[in-house]
Structure formats: structure tokens, C-alpha cells
Amino acid sequence: MGSQYRLMTLFADGGFMMYPLVLCSMIALGVMIAKFFTLYFAHHGTRRVLSEVEEKARAGDIQGAIAVARDTPGPAAAILLVGLRRIESKRMNAGELEAAVATTGTIELSFLERGLVILATVANVAPLLGFLGTVAGMILAFAAIEEAGNVDPALVAGGIKVALLTTAAGLVVAVPVNIGYNFFVTRIDTLIVDMEQGAQKIINLAWDLEKDGKIEIVKKEDTRWSAADTAAAKAGKPAPQAPAGG
Predict the structure, then answer these.
(1) What residue spans of the chain are helical by DSSP H?
(2) Rounded distance between C-alpha atoms, residue 99 and residue 196, angstroms
(3) Is 202 part of a structural domain of the chain?
(4) Which domain holds residue 83?
(5) Is the terminal CB of the chain with fewer CB neighbours within 10 Å at N or C?
(6) pTM score, two decimals?
(7) How far apart are CA 42 and CA 76, in angstroms?
(8) How many domains does the chain have?
(9) Residue 150: its pLDDT value, please?
(10) Residue 243 falls within a domain, yes or no?
């Protein structure tokens, strides 16, 4: 009870700037808790899904590999799933698989980075709010001196206390939030490596299946005109045709 009373007293003595600082701390705490569990479940089971999907797909059980990827949360599983669905059709255009994997990776990365901007903002704004409270406290101190007409420590103590409390509160909020932000960035970098491994596995699998004749990758024909064809078209002449034989 005594410590709680002391905290409430310090909060009250800190002045009006303590309210936005407490709000920043509550927002950052909520984001950090949600982010921790999101990144944990995103990475949990990644090694297992990579090995199981590759094993089932190379054994010809594409449906089983799809089921494993679908039932496993995480960005690597999402990339494997979108690639397996393309392979399931047994026919795709050249570059279609790579484009689908790249698009899915971009979407998953944006989901993983969601909330980091809030933590970065709190880490930057909290010390500024503390410094703003410091300036307000010093203004109160000098206003007390001006009103009294003399420098009395008892008069300026209140303003200086506000200045010190808000500065300390801003740093107390900013330091752990900054540490949490850097921790989450490191975890996201690990998940990016997981996504790259998943993308490489699914592309290698598609190449191997194409070599074995189990899927067909349709090469796009080059429909661009040569320089001679372009010059002939500008001159109003029919484009030269390749000889029918040899």
C-alpha cells in the first residue's frame, strides 16, 4: 500500500505531462505483448513444416503437403502453401511461381512489421514529452521566483520536482520500448530467413518436378519484333518471314 501511494504521489507531482506518458506506456505495452505472441507463433514449427512439406511433396503427396502447410501458422508455411497450390495444377507459366511467392512474402512481411511503427514512435516521443515537462517545470519555477521577488528554494522546489519527474518518466518509458523494438526487429529478420528458405525449397521442388515430367512450365514466347521487322513495318513492307525449312 505504501509503494502504491508513493507512485500515485509521484504521478500527481509530475504534473499534466504524466498523463500522455502513461498513455504511451500502456499503448506500447499492449503492442509489445501482442507482437511477442505473434512472432512466437510465426516462427514456431517452421523447421518442421519445411521438412514435412518437402518430404511429402517429393513423395508425390501434394495434397498432404498442402494440408501440412495450411495447418501451420507462419509466413514460411504461407509461402509453401501458395507455391504448392501452383504446383498442384501441374501446369504453370514461367515466372508464375516466383511472382506468387514474392507477392506472398511481401504481404507476410508487412504483417510481421505491423505495430513496429507504434513502438518506434513511442520510443521517440516519450523522451520529448519528458523534456517538455521539464521545460514546463522550469517555467513554473521561474514564475514562482518572479512572483515572490526573491530566490527562495522552497518556492522553486515544486517546479524543479516536476521537471525531474517528467524527464525520468519519459526515459523510463522510452528505454524498455526501444529495447523491445530492437528485439522484435531481430526476430523479424529471423523470420525473413525462414521465408527465404521456404521460397527456395518450393522453387527447387518445382524445378525437380519439371525435370521428372510431373509438372509442365510453359515458356512464354518472345513476341518482340526484331530491328529488321520494325524497319519493314515503318516502310509499309511486310515483315520478313523465317524460311520454312532448315
Answers:
(1) 2-13, 18-43, 46-58, 62-70, 75-88, 96-112, 116-148, 153-211, 227-234
(2) 14
(3) yes
(4) 2-218
(5) C
(6) 0.75
(7) 8
(8) 1
(9) 66
(10) no
